[in-house]
Amino acid sequence: MPGWGTVTMRASATQRLLTPKAAPLSDFTLLLRRLHIDGPLLLVLLLICGFGLIVLYSAVGESNRLLLNQAIRLGVAFVAMFIVAQLPPDFLRRWTPWGYAAGLVLLVLVLFKGDVGQGARRWLDVGIRFQPSEAMKLGVPMMAAWFLHERTMPPRFGVIAIIAVMIVVPTILIARQPDLGTSLLIAASGVIVIILAGMSIRFMLGLGVAAIPGAFVLWNFMQDYQKQRVLTLLNPDSDPLGAGYNIIQSKIAIGSGGLFGKGWTNGSQAQLEFLPERHTDFIFAVLGEEFGLLGVLVLLVLYMMVIGRGLFIAVQAHDTYSRLLAGSISLTFMVYVFVNTAMVTGLIPVVGVPLPLVSFGGTSMVTLLAGFGILMSIHTHRKLLPH
Predict the structure, then answer these.
(1) How far is CA 274 from its chain centroid?
(2) What predicted TM-score, i.e. pTM, was given to this entire model?
(3) Could you tell me the pLDDT band of residue 235, with boundaries at 50, 70 and 90?
(4) Which candidate, 37, 176, 197, 321, has a CA 20 to 30 Å from the CA of 162?
(5) Is the dihedral of CA 297, 303, 306, 309 positive or negative?
(6) Where are the domains of the chain?
(7) Per-residue pLDDT for 277 more than 50?
């Protein structure tokens, strides 16, 4: 009779024969893994940016110069994404407090040394003109995730209070520029981290109740033009040639597009310059007029694919910092999309938030794609993290 060793060897050989082998990875997939690039996320981002350039070409009056400028900015942003993707999550976590502190210093410098443009002091010029507030869109959720990394979940009240201070300080500094839209989005990115950490429903209801008197306090600190935007939301026809002009023209553009749109570069509202800020905040209206409801749905589906991939990466992450940060980046991106589309369609006041990856701009594009670089880093480095 064969011994136990022989039986075990035969069983192991049989198991190897019955176990299906993993399909060999293609050379391109192996290359993406070595470069720490997530293929599905990269593909959808490229589709959105390509579609965005098509819409932008019409929005800028078919200007090859402006389109080339945006293409160069996109190239720089993708390089930034690639560089960030190479940095392991452990490295990002260790340097998070220093990056957050540097961001606060830059925000203070903006208040005293910043360049003024369009009635706001938001930019620093150090040879390259940029908005430090954009960097805090990543700095705030990274800092909140860093603080929660080694703490028990759900967080206690004292922990939440400390994180609230971390969120409120940059929010106030940005609101004083003034940039109410960006400040609220940055606050939302930090609050999302707290919610993902397991904030109790009772606590969230308490915050909701506290937000009611908080809204009245906020109203007293708002600039006159910001108050006018809120009042215009309630009745844009009260000032059709003034405060309500943007929303009225935007609704006309989107409504006239119908199901299939008027055709590329054939939108009357955009081409005849009835639509203001058509290449930045209101480019979604250009999309609706020229590509119709179908074009809008295509873009929204692509956005949902990005958000879904980001949440998948968050679920697959191996540590608290990575999970909270990936979830916040993904859901904050969803907030950006909602705020811009809701603003353009008249559901919320005009707050000056660009359409992600589509609107003309530089700093915001780099920040967004750097955030997606963090997602790729979390996903492609996950096997190197301790279990």
Answers:
(1) 29
(2) 0.86
(3) low
(4) 176
(5) negative
(6) 34-382
(7) yes
Q: How far apart are CA 338 and CA 369, in angstroms?
A: 18
**What is the per-residue pLDDT across 163-203, written as a single tens digit (0 to 9) for each?**
999 999 999 899 888 787 888 899 999 999 999 998 777 77
- Is residue 86 predicted with pLDDT exceeding 80? yes
What value does the mean pLDDT take over residues 127-150?
A: 89
Which residues face 130 on adjacent strands? 124
Taking phi over 0 as left and psi of -120 to 50 as alpha, with beta for the rest, 114 belongs to: beta
Amino acid at the residue 343: M
